[in-house]
Amino acid sequence: MAAMTARGRPISSTRRWWLLVLAALLAVPALAQEAVAQEAEAPIQLKVIGGLGGVSQYTRYEEPFWRRRIGELTGGRVQAEIAPFDRAGLRAEEILPLMRLGVVPFGTALLAVVSSEEPEFNAVDLPALNPDIGTLRETVQRYRPHLKELLLDRYNVELLSVYTYPAQVIWCSRPFTGLGDLAGRRIRTSSVGQAEMVEALGAISVVIPFAEIVGALRGGVVECAVTGTMSGNSIGLTAVTSHIHAMAITWGVSVFGANSAAWHALPEGVRSSIRAGLAELETAIWNGADRETGEGLNCSSGQSGCSDGRMGNLTVVPLSAADIARRRQLLTSTVLPRWVDRCGDGCAEAWNAYLGPSLGITVRHP
């Protein structure tokens, strides 16, 4: 049957053809708008390099945040893939240079490792500087503006978060009552600053990878080791040591940031959501580090308050008045002067501007 007009008259084939053409033309803008809308709604894909794999900072906090929480915060607009740097075929020393190039658009850098090339970055986590997490929080808060400036100026990286691992303390296979008892012992260290500190105690520094600490203690290669309270517990140091010191030597502070171009390419609303989420994540990581520092000590010494670690029977060596005095002496006479020697005038100026006044410690160079 022929198509009819509203008045019941048949529509000619020519007119029908023109009506179809007109309908198609009218549909083009609508289709274009729909395509643009679909494109705008397509999820933004982010690739993230996280911290050390296998430790709680990554498994409990970083990985869940990027795999799930970021989607919730952005209403599904952002999807992210994350891998720890040590399982992504990257060396910790490479992270900031790769971020500057944009090869790693979002990444986590350990300041103690970065400091081999950029000593100024690690001012917040020098050995003997932060004996407890409260002091560390204050140190990071004061130095954070300078860290932000350094990352942007030298690496074109936007600082988005600062994380910390639990306290790194001294574990020993035979008794000691404080820092003064460590002279002559071979102690595992993991950084130049740690090595300088233990050598100032009259001990011998031995650089050993984290995975080899238990074997080195069992085999007598070292008598003591500097490592985390909970990470040391998790690898079984309770089976090869007898005493653990309560004072933090260092912590393991890291920064999370983004290549500036990659960051500013994101819509402003997405950046706001990411910043808010990262503030939430940072708080959780710091609270977790505080909790795990105490829990690591409790587990290793067989005390209550241990939920995740291995129960041991180690003796916790308390922080004595002599240790408090010795810590400050090590900081002022060894750690800071050696750090400034490696770093130069810039470090001395940064220390005196951001950290020295609150501690009553001024450094000079040369």
Give me the secondary-structure topology.
Layout: H1 13-41, E1 44-50, H2 56-73, E2 78-84, H3 95-101, E3 106-110, H4 111-114, H5 133-155, E4 157-164, E5 168-172, E6 186-189, H6 192-200, E7 204-207, H7 213-218, E8 224-228, H8 229-234, E9 243-245, E10 253-259, H9 260-264, H10 268-300, E11 315-317, H11 321-343, H12 345-359
Parallel strand pairs: 1-2, 1-3, 6-7, 6-8, 9-11
Antiparallel strand pairs: 3-10, 4-10, 5-8, 5-9
Helix pairs in contact: 2-10, 6-11
Helix/sheet category: alpha/beta
Order of helices and strands: HEHEHEHHEEEHEHEHEEHHEHH
Report helical residue fraction.
40-55%
- Determine the N-to-C terminus distance: 101 Å
- Classify the beta-strand content into a percent band: 15-25%
Query: How many β-strand stretches?
Result: 11
Oligomer: single chain
Radius of gyration based on Cα positions: 28 Å
Average pLDDT, rounded to a whole number, is 89
Shape: globular
Q: Helical stretch count? A: 12
Report the uncertain regions.
Answer: 1-9, 17-39
Strand order of the largest sheet: 7-6-8-5-9-11
The major pleated sheet works out as: 6 strands, mixed
Task: Describe the protein.
The chain is α/β, with parallel strands linked by helices and 366 residues long. Helices cover 49% and strands 16% of the residues. The chain contains twelve helices and eleven strands. Strands 7-6-8-5-9-11 form a six-stranded mixed β-sheet. α6 links the parallel β6 (186-189) and β7. The longest helix is centred in the C-terminal third of the chain and has 33 residues, at 268-300.
